[in-house]
Amino acid sequence: MNRILIGAQWGDEGKGKIIDILAAKTDIIVRYQGGNNAGHTVKFGKKKYVLHLIPSGILHPKKQCVIGNGVVVDPEALLQEIRMLESQGVSARGRLFISEQAHLILPYHRTLDALREESLAKGGMIGTTKKGIGPCYADKMARMGLRVGDLRYPAYFRERLEFVLREKNQILKKIYNHPGFSFKEMLAFCEKYRKPLLTYTRDTALYLYQAAQKKKKMLFEGAQGTLLDVDHGTYPFVTSSNASVGGAIIGSGVSPTLIDEVMGVVKAYTTRVGEGPFPTEFSGRMMEMIRNKGEEFGSTTGRPRRCGWFDAVIARHAVRINGLSELAVMKLDVLSGLPEIKIATAYRYQGKLIKDYPHAHCALAGSQPVYETMPGWNEDITGVKRWKDFPAAARRYLKRLEDLLETPIKIVSVGSKREQTVFL
Ligand code: GDP
Ligand code: IMO
Ligand code: MG
Predict the structure, then answer these.
(1) Which of 37, 86, 191, 326: disulfide with 129, CB 3.0–4.6 Å?
(2) Residue of 19, 20, 113, 228 to test ligand 2 pocket, by largest number of atoms within 8 Å of CB
(3) 232 with 317: CB under 8 angstroms?
(4) Separation of CA 229 from chain center
(5) Which pLDDT score, from 0 to 100, does residue 352 have?
(6) Residues belonging to the active site
């Protein structure tokens, strides 16, 4: 069985935890988009890992992991992550494969990301992770990128780098008043990572095709979330890749006919990091309370996450765009102790009731949520193992989410550890 796992909100839904659990019954775990802007947390025993670029399945010693062609790879970040894993006794050797078609994030991408954000500080800032993700994907589309596999051909690589850098330096100097990068230093940077990177590189689409023929089970690990998708999210406050289901196909080279299930991961409430519209966002004490209780601080940048009520309008949009066949609901424990819990079931925009996600930035930013209120529960649910052990109010809340999203809930998470998971 092959499954795609997708964030159905604005990222940080708890994908890392679910990937780690599902990886146990999978052969190959595949990252297909994004880069080290992601931060996927896995906790077991007394250990905590935050993975940015390497699939979360790597923590299972016998599983194979793929970084697909749709991912953007910062060589420095990748090797740092490999070293971090090695220092904890986890080896990626012989079981991590990187697509030769994946694009390289080079230092000028990071610099451009930061400079652009700085220049937008007075208005229009996205609040990116400054990892160079946007500039790298922009180069890919503009056919000005360098790919991991290009490192195999030093003469060609040099020529391309020189050509690309000439344009980058013009932009850096003329628009951002930055001194630019010398060809020598950029080449030395790439040279330093050439060999270590190439030891992991192969034709991953062919590898996955052959694995599928041998009936190997594949799990596709989405990064970010549907509302951060460059096409289907809250544009322009999005990331620069397709975080929704299509990204898995394009970004891995695997045919959609091989996919059996698409699981959506949602938090029992909503969070977002960075700028952009967020209709159900809390304010004041409620924000502080949920942020602290849910430990809502970015896994990649440490920034405080914005928190709000569950938004069924955006989640329904994610259900439709991705064709979600099942749901994992995370962090239900964080809602314990609230006298009442709200769910946004629709929006009101300029006096009109809207039930379906409005694509226009102005419509979403100007929408007020229409809430349904449900009773909360006081019990600590962090030790619950079975459906029938949940307080009645928690069961009613989950049932309501299922009805509103017209998708069965398969997993409920009640804590960050592997064992704090209820399978329905
Ligand atoms: P991802 O990017 O979707 O993998 O999510 P992150 O790892 O960025 O953020 C999710 C955070 O919530 C991590 O710190 C997890 O350890 C934590 N977490 C996951 N599931 C639960 C849960 O059910 N309850 C609580 N309290 N924390 C959880
Ligand atoms: P995971 O995989 C939450 C957000 C950034 C910013 C926007 C664009 O851990 O869920 P970028 O650096 O990608 O150009 O930033 O996207 N963002 C995320 N938010 N979780 C993530 O990943 C994110 N990756 C990017 O905060 O608003
Ligand atoms: Mg995260």
Answers:
(1) 37
(2) 228
(3) yes
(4) 10
(5) 97
(6) 12, 40
274 lines ligand 2 (CB under 6 A): yes
Within 8 A by CB and 6+ apart from 338, the residues are 376
Rounded Cα distance, 5 and 413, in Å: 15
Ligand 1 atom at minimum distance from 298 CA:
8
Report pLDDT digits (tens) over 273-285: 999 999 999 999 9
In sequence order, the 6+-apart residues with CB closer than 8 A to the CB of 318 are 6, 8, 9, 225, 226, 227, 244, 264, 266, 324
Domains and CATH numbers, the chain: 3-100+201-263 (3.40.440.10), 103-197 (1.10.300.10), 266-423 (3.90.170.10)
Token digits of residue 271: 């969070």
Strand ranges, E, within 46-191: 47-51, 64-67, 72-73, 96-99, 103-104
Which residue ranges have their beta carbon within 6 Å of ligand 1? 7, 11-17, 39-41, 43, 295, 299, 330-331, 333-334, 413-416
Residues whose CB is less than 8 angstroms from the CB of residue 403 and which lie 6 or more positions away in sequence, other chains included = none
pTM given for the model: 0.97
Atom of ligand 1 nearest to the CA of 265: 3
Nearest residue to 32 via CA among 254, 258, 248, 322 = 248
Q: List 42's β-bridge partners, or say none.
A: 49
**How high does pLDDT run on average in the chain?**
97
Which of 224, 272, 295 maximizes ligand 2 atoms within 8 Å of its Cβ, making it the mutation to test the pocket? 224
CA 45/CA 172 separation, integer angstroms: 47
What is the spatial distance between Cα 391 and Cα 336, in angstroms, rounded to a whole number?
Answer: 10
Task: Find the farthest-apart pair of alpha carbons in the chain and give their distance in angstroms, rounded.
Answer: 67
Length of the chain measured in residues: 424
- Cα separation, 115 vs 179, in Å, equals 12
